[in-house]
Design brief:
- The chain has 309 residues and is an alpha/beta fold.
- The chain folds into 2 domains: 160 residues, Rossmann fold (3-Layer(aba) Sandwich); 124 residues, Rossmann fold, CATH 3.40.50.2000.
- Strands 3-4-2-1-5-6-7 form a 7-stranded mixed beta sheet, sandwiched between helices. A 5-stranded parallel beta sheet has the order 10-9-8-11-12, with helices on both faces.
- The longest helix is centred in the first third of the chain and has 15 residues.
- The chain is globular and about 60 Å long.
Length: 309
Amino acid sequence: MKIALLGTRGIPASYSGFETCVEQLGQRLVQRGHQVTVYCRSHHIKYTGKHYKGMRLVKLPTIPNKYLDTIVHTFLSSLHALTQGYDIALYFISGNSPITWIPRLVGTKTILNVDGLDWKREKWPVFAKKYIKFAEYLATKLPNAYVTDSRAIQAYYRDRFGSEPPYIPYGSEVETLPPGETLSHFGLEPRKYILFVGRLVPENCAHHLVEAFRGLDTDFKCVIVGNAPYVERYISSLKESAKDDPRIIFTGYVFGKGYYELDSNAYIFVETSGVGGTHPALLEAMAFGNCVVVHNTPENLETIGDAGF
């Protein structure tokens, strides 16, 4: 089959869990003999190749601001998809639901993978929160089908809309690595640091981790991996709050071998997010055999089961 993956920033994965999902799912579909196309945002994906791990990449522009970045790119991607003869178009993110009808005009089946309750995020003003809630409703109406990676989100849609999306959980594939260049670069010792991985946005609550860690009398270090667009003020305040504590290290984005090395050698992985479905970084930390400590949201507690705190 010809399958399109739309609605994310694209691959190689360098932003969040949905991009990781696209990369992992897409390459496995290719291995099964399908033709896979991934739509990428040209301002975000710097990889210059036209194919990646067997997937065709289509890079299109967008309007790079907080409100229009995703929906404009998804709209343009959907218009492009009309002429490509796809059998299936798989969309990501609830906010893209108003677009999912477009490929259906030419007989393409559309599926939407809904995210967590994005309207809870502090970054959105009132009008954006109302749009997202309306988009959740449209997710139950406009695509041929919609799915979720979280039992908690499945229950939310059932209770609010009387519609229960199929639950398809994430897996995790990791590569355990010994201490090497990445630990050396950041001045880290194996099993002597706490690890956080995620977008540095207010609702992921890295500020709670910084505040708590500053109160600890320990020679461990606190390693915060991640970044985010459109929240420069928050990131500046986060770093300002930690500037007088050399134990707290901000690495920026780290992917690939460097990320695996950090996860392989951490003492504890901390998941502080207050919003979202299943977080792939948490699953990966568990796959590495790390002790995990999480914010007690239903989604996080569902993920760890009896294998974390």
